[in-house]
Amino acid sequence: MTMRVRWVCALLLAGILGLAWGLVFSAPRNDSEADLTARIARESDLVKKAKYEVRLARVKLIQALDARENGELETSLKLLGAYLETVKSAWDHLRQSGRVAHKKSQGFKELDIELREDGRYLEDLKRSVSFMDRGPVEKVIQEVESLRAEVLKVLFPTMAPPSR
User: Fold this and answer.
1) What pTM did the predictor assign?
2) Please, are residues 64 and 126 in contact by the beta-carbon 8 Å criterion?
3) Exposure of 59 by Cβ count < 10 A (0-12 exposed, 13-18 middle, 19+ buried)?
4) Which of 1, 58, 116, 119 is the most buried (most CB within 10 A)?
């Protein structure tokens, strides 16, 4: 084999290994409620604790959506309450961290992204619930939007608040 062929083979192999490595570490997380709760309990860094709480909130929201699909409206509403409490706790921990959000956005940015995505899930949930049962879901949506507006205000202090 010539030297050029060896280099091409080595580069191809390195590229394939790099791609495989990237796929393994970019795969979606399988967060469990018990694992995240344990991490939150032992974490002392408020920003990391808030990040875990954001992930736990997503788990709660997905459980609420699944419960609604299975026709368990009461369970779904309880899980939505737990979701909202967890998101508010994450926001409280970020505020207590003493970080200036527009300078060091770690944690704040993740919360904003999750709240925006969760808003879409909640809108879908609202459409799947009968008109008579939408009140609690709409309340959660309003609180999530309000919380997101607060997060955006600290991330972008000179920006006007988002209009709905």
Assistant:
1) 0.76
2) no
3) buried
4) 58
